[in-house]
UniProtKB/TrEMBL annotation:
Major facilitator superfamily (MFS) profile domain location: 1-197
Protein name: Major facilitator superfamily (MFS) profile domain-containing protein
Cross-referenced PROSITE patterns: MFS (PS50850)
Family: Belongs to the major facilitator superfamily.
Amino acid sequence: NPQRRKKRRKRTKTEWGGVGVTHAVVVIFLEFFAWGLLTTPMLKVLHETFPQHTFLMNGLVHGVKGFLSFLSAPLIGALSDTWGRKSFLLITVFFTCAPIPFMRISPWWYFALIAVSGTFAVTFSVIFAYVADVTEEHERSTAYGLVSATFAASLVTSPAIGAYLSSRYGDSLVVLVATVIAVADIAFVFFVVPESLPDKMRLSSWGFPISWEQADPFASLRRVGKDSTVLLICVTVFLSYLPEAGQYSSFFLYLKQVIHFSSEAIAAFIAMVGILSIIAQVR
């Protein structure tokens, strides 16, 4: 019976979707928990490395990273449609976390790698594609909200834990713990996370060339201009996120260097923001 087989397939996908979303949540939590631990040490290292141009270099590092992410995101998305999600989850998590141990090895290399890692720092894009593969359409919004809430949850405790470890045992231990968690995240993707995109659903086979239209980051911008409603929505979102992105990249540094907040106060502030974000996502 075709209808019975169709229902069986949907039920199987729904059951698998719960597991798949759990995998996505774990990957996001571990990655951003590792980076959250470094909040206090990173503010110290940034000021010590660039004492005269702390805010300028902080903005340049985040600006280059964001611009490279913008350029590479369509290509990585197209390649994941072709080669599957798991391999690109592994690549994005690895390169996003690669700068972490360099905080103690060489601060200059650390900030340079953060900037360059923007080429692959699109874990969220691949995670959302992964979630779309393993969920039904009516489950997708809830699953996306859960992933976003998990990102906020990872920031509720990790800065406070990092600040405590830093004050008690020093920054080296914090970097070591963050590195171990990052390695655990990479191992989780490699050994536990299954491929979400079956071979028959992939757009092409290995070695098939990707068109420039798929890799062009400006193609979607050109398509946006063709629909006035979509254009207005995109402009609204852009103007909304523009000050938020600038605030996120410099606010904690401002609290530390200008207002002279303690590490504990900054961690408490981040935890408060994370809790409010979780409440908003759940609601």
